[in-house]
Design goal:
heterodimer; A: alpha+beta; OB fold (Dihydrolipoamide Acetyltransferase, E2P); 6-stranded mixed β-sheet; 5-stranded antiparallel β-sheet; 9 helices; 18 strands; globular; binds adenosine-5'-triphosphate; binds magnesium ion
Chain lengths: ~325, ~290
């Protein structure tokens, strides 16, 4: 079915190597998210899998068969582009039916499939419109509709939500997750938004400069990041890193503590770090404090609910000893 | 221009240009209309007063009228088909990354800079001359009898010359259109299983529709009045007398300004019929 294996895949544009040798296994039915900072090669990797770019060396296997030299249309994959890439001169109906028409499927059967897809995606009322007459979210759904009618082995999404506003993004995120539950087809999803990655993925692949930093479930990445990059990239607000004397006490080059793993107090505690509140951000459900803790530097600390500390107030923070991450000088996580 | 406000502002600002252009157009048109109702023979008695619709009736009942309309339409139609078809192909070719792209593009555009009279003379004397022309040599090389291009295939020759002149224009406009096509759309259609020809038919050609419309409309306007190419090559002989050429003959060769003006009005009517007809067919591409 929809298993995809990359073996020692590399990609260079001219002299610059964008993807150094890379191995990756994607299992059938998995929702895999590629996440990483801008320019790290996520889109390139996706396009290699799609067949829109040729690999420089290495092999791509789909369903156990070598697909490295198979053209994109024969790989049985569907792609949803960041720009939607709808055909502007065709109605929504024709857009969705296009892959079926190209595959030579009988118009009667195609019509049924298009209408089913439109039903699932709430597009029934818009079938006769042109893409130019739709909102961003509707266009996105048409692009997804065009991808699902082919019943592909796997879906490829390249930052499909980045052109939508925040509220719509949350909605579409849910819709795509539901679609995945329903179809149980492999999905590969590229994003630079770690919230999308955490909420949607079965498996997250964290990339930096074309190198896979870590592969794992969202909670694995959250609770046991392999290195300092992953620790800093996953989780919001970012993990606090403390170096120097304090880290040395823990036998490490640096220690990392997430904002939610501090115990905050406005009374002196015996082994807490003393600090001064610089900025407090009240979100209602949570409050984030930026606390200047002297030699520990500026720490971000999360408190649940309202917390009555203001700018300039003294406070004491104490890390949750069980949830301290220790890193060596190269940034790798040290075992406990 | 979406709001009421911006629309009326736009109208106000366009007004000077529109008034100037109207004046520019209306004065000669009115004079032509005026002369078309008078008997005016500059060398044979000058302006001899009103004759009503006489000139119109005489112009149409002349045996050369309908053939000239037919010739005009054949030449315009032939050139349009050739320039659009080859224009699209050349535009696709020039869009491909290749070595020496800049020079090739300049070469393709070059014919547009050659004056019609000059290009017609070059074609007539260097290519189509039945004794010394390059085509004649080519034919002889293969043992065939050279064609007397301008008398045996006169209309085809003129269509060829004029197409050669207008191909760069079509290519240039279509090339910019090809370049404006979103690469994602082509990649999406590739993933959707469209083969190269299908990609051309379903994605590229519809994208070009608007540019093709513009090429057709603009070229038609200019092609209806081609003159130099005919004057220089056949002088209107061998069935190459277009409406424009017929009017020229009436005014200058027969020195009959009234009759020529009536012909001019017919030409305006013909141009409008063709324009409306074209707008109907292709106009819907413009407001998509
Ligand atoms: N056609 C190309 N030619 C040369 N370099 C390229 C090409 N395409 C991408 N690159 C380079 O490859 C690197 C990875 O690009 P890629 O588009 O995969 O990044 P990305 O992770 O998708 O970033 P973003 O989140 O901004 O979309 C970038 O440094 C980019 O400059
Ligand atoms: Mg990208």
């Amino acid at each position: 079915m929809g298993t995809i294996t990359l073996k020692q895949v590399t990609k260079s544009f001219g002299d610059t190597q964008v993807i150094p040798p890379l191995d990756l296994q994607i299992n059938d039915g998995e929702f895999v998210v590629f996440v990483g900072p801008s320019g790290c090669g996520k889109s390139t990797l996706l396009r290699l899998i799609a067949g829109l770019e040729d690999v420089t060396s290495g092999h791509i296997e789909i369903d156990g068969a070598d697909a490295t030299n198979i053209p994109p249309s024969k790989r049985g994959l569907s792609m949803v582009f960041q720009s939607y890439a709808l055909y502007p001169h065709m109605s929504v109906r024709k857009n969705i039916a296009f892959p079926l028409k190209m595959a030579g499927i009988e118009p009667e059967i195609a019509k049924k499939k298009v209408e089913d897809a439109a039903q699932v995606l709430n597009l029934t009322d818009y079938l006769e419109r042109r893409p130019g007459q739709l909102s961003g979210g509707q266009r996105q759904r048409v692009a997804i509709g065009r991808a699902i009618v082919r019943e592909p082995e796997a879906f490829l999404f390249d930052e499909p939500l980045s052109n939508l506003d925040a509220a719509l993004r949350v909605n579409m995120r849910l819709e795509i997750s539901e679609l995945h539950q329903e179809l149980a087809t492999t999905m590969i999803y590229v994003t630079h938004d770690q919230v999308e990655a955490m909420t949607m993925a079965d498996k997250i692949v964290v990339l930096q400069a074309g190198v896979i930093e870590q592969v794992g479930s969202p909670l694995e990445l959250y609770s046991s990041p392999a290195n300092r990059f992953v620790a800093g990239f996953i989780g919001s607000p970012k993990m606090n890193f403390i170096e120097g004397e304090t880290a040395a006490k823990y036998d490490a080059h640096a220690i990392g503590v997430r904002p939610e793993h501090f115990i905050l107090s406005n009374k002196q505690t015996k082994d807490g770090w003393e600090g001064k509140v610089e900025v407090s951000e009240h979100l209602g459900s949570d409050t984030f404090f930026h606390i200047n803790a002297g030699k520990q530097g500026v720490l971000t600390v999360r408190a649940i609910g309202e917390y009555a500390l203001r700018h300039g107030d003294a406070c004491w923070v104490k890390p949750d000893e069980d949830r301290i991450h220790r890193f060596d000088a190269a940034g790798l996580t040290l075992g406990s | 221009m979406a709001t009421q406000n911006s629309r009326s502002a736009a109208r106000l600002m366009l007004a000077p240009a529109v008034i100037l252009l109207l004046g520019w157009m209306l004065v000669p048109l009115t004079m032509t209309l005026w002369f078309s109702f008078r008997k005016y023979l500059p060398l044979r008695g000058g302006d001899q007063g009103w004759v009503g619709l006489d000139n119109y009736v005489r112009f149409v009942s002349s045996s050369s009228f309908w053939p000239s309309v037919q010739t005009t339409l054949i030449i315009v139609g032939g050139v349009l088909v050739i320039t659009v078809v080859f224009g699209v192909l050349l535009a696709l070719l020039l869009d491909q990354p290749m070595w020496g792209q800049g020079i090739v593009r300049i070469l393709v555009i070059a014919p547009f800079f050659v004056m019609p009279t000059v290009s017609a003379l070059v074609w007539k004397n260097i290519f189509m001359d039945p004794v010394n022309g390059l085509f004649a040599h080519l034919w002889k090389f293969f043992g065939a009898t050279p064609i007397e291009w301008l008398s045996q295939a006169s209309i085809q020759s003129i269509v060829m010359i004029v197409s050669w002149q207008w191909l760069p224009f079509a290519t240039l406009i279509l090339l910019t259109a090809v370049q404006s096509l979103d690469g994602d759309q082509l990649e999406a259609s590739e993933m959707d299983g469209a083969k190269p020809l299908q990609r051309f038919g379903y994605i590229i050609l519809p994208h070009l529709a608007r540019a093709i419309t513009i090429v057709v409309l603009i070229q038609t306007i200019f092609l209806l009045s081609i003159f130099a190419e005919i004057f220089v090559t056949t002088g209107g002989a061998f069935g190459t007398k277009t409406l424009t050429y017929l009017i020229f003959q009436r005014v200058l060769e027969s020195q009959n300004i009234g009759l020529g003006s009536a012909g001019g009005i017919y030409a305006v009517i013909l141009a409008n019929i063709v324009a409306i007809f074209l707008m109907r067919i292709v106009g819907k591409n413009l407001d998509a």
